[in-house]
Amino acid sequence: MTKTILVLHGPNLNMLGRREPHIYGATTLAEINEALEQRGKAAGVEVICIQSNHEGVLVDAVQTHGWTASGIIINPGALTHYGLSLRDALAMVSAPIIEVHLSNVYQREAFRHTSVVAPIARGQITGLGWRGYLLALEWLLAEL
């Protein structure tokens, strides 16, 4: 059975490449997903990427794929600060979770400094742009 890594992208991440490129960079979400899928394929792991602007869709994805996933990479976007139903769904599964943020949230507005996901995540990668996703994937692959 092929191992899987679930990658969840929260609200507004579908606008990467166009959305405030001075903060989030010029790389699109499609390019990030392609890089993750190709790296996973090279390692013999299926990478499932899901983006939604709706918390319930991400909760459904965790409930569908989280039980069998070998790991979860999540950039919750704005849900980082208040997405309690998403946090609770993630807490139900045993897969290690890595939280990723493109920008360094701790150098930004104070409200961005609080994450409801961080206490249940194995680790957090912030401020390294799109490459933070690949670093999270490399850590998960090493843990397999």
Automatic annotation (TrEMBL):
Transmembrane segments: none
Keywords, comma-separated and alphabetical: Amino-acid biosynthesis, Aromatic amino acid biosynthesis, Lyase
Residues reported in the UniProt entry to bind substrate: 75, 81, 88, 102-103, 112
Leading EC class: lyase
Catalytic residues (positions): 24, 101
This protein's pathway: Metabolic intermediate biosynthesis; chorismate biosynthesis; chorismate from D-erythrose 4-phosphate and phosphoenolpyruvate: step 3/7
EC number: 4.2.1.10
GO terms of molecular function: 3-dehydroquinate dehydratase activity
Pfam families linked: DHquinase_II (PF01220)
Gene Ontology biological process terms, A to Z: amino acid biosynthetic process; aromatic amino acid family biosynthetic process; chorismate biosynthetic process; quinate catabolic process
Keyword Transmembrane helix among record annotations: no
Functional description taken from the UniProt entry: Catalyzes a trans-dehydration via an enolate intermediate.
Record-annotated site: Transition state stabilizer: 19
Keyword Iron: no
PANTHER family listed in its UniProt record: CATABOLIC 3-DEHYDROQUINASE
Record's catalysed reaction(s): 3-dehydroquinate = 3-dehydroshikimate + H2O
Domain of life of the organism encoding this protein: Bacteria
Family the UniProt entry places it in: Belongs to the type-II 3-dehydroquinase family.
Subunit structure comment from the entry: Homododecamer.
Designated name of the protein: 3-dehydroquinate dehydratase
Entry-linked InterPro entries: DHquinase_II, DHquinase_II_CS, DHquinase_II_sf
Signal peptide: none
